[in-house]
């Protein structure tokens, strides 16, 4: 039998009633019984998380202190951003150049437009020459070779104008693409530079600062612990043999290490589905019905999670029941070994579901 549960018994009279006047024997008694799973744990702020570094670099400033309440976007750490600042400045300058080159009055496009203007004028002149030669050729005033040369010059100018126009369109597209890439590079540089200011993602309390001014940190290093001060939670570790009994909404009785002897009531609010290899337990969260005044994050505690309750149960001392659920029952001068059907099993008492009667005498043999 597994004796891993705490049993809370209603009424102190039960302990004396289980004692028989007969030496070394006990008779079953009926009493209310509550089964609870013991779970150690600690206090944790609601929404608690670890703030991490997004880049390598030295800490140059820590403008907050432990216990401060910070707002969204508030800087908690500043890192040396010299290289990132240079990259941002360069990206901004490149963007300005790209924007100028992509404008309608840029030097690149102005030169091409001037080429188009010259080519268009030449095309008009070549068209005039061709038309004149066509009229003269019709009257046999010029030779056919002169007309052919004029037609060839006109077609060449026409092709040249079209080529320049296509070149202008392609250049505009290329300059726009360069502008888009430069804008992206600048935005990326600004974002990278901003990562050196480690900011709060919301309204939180700073519980722990893990780095100080002058510390060298690497990307991914833990910097601080933040959480909601108004939402303190009970974080509990429950063993593998007991986790199946835990359900949300169950009552939790908690004793803080800072207030020995005082019990606070709460309820199970969340059961994490994964097994924590480090603690070798499952994590269960509970909330206080009323949060204790002056509660400190990280405070160690012990809790009993109430998993079942019976108003009337047959109980015998654990010393009367063997590990495999058997008992020695005395009938006059005869002693019989009886296989019991047990329910809740604890350190001191065992619930009996079947196998004996209320007036049987059990020998305390274990």
Automatic annotation (TrEMBL):
PROSITE patterns: PROKAR_LIPOPROTEIN (PS51257). Coiled coil: none annotated. One of its GO terms (molecular function) is efflux transmembrane transporter activity. GO terms for cellular component: efflux pump complex. This is HlyD family efflux transporter periplasmic adaptor subunit.
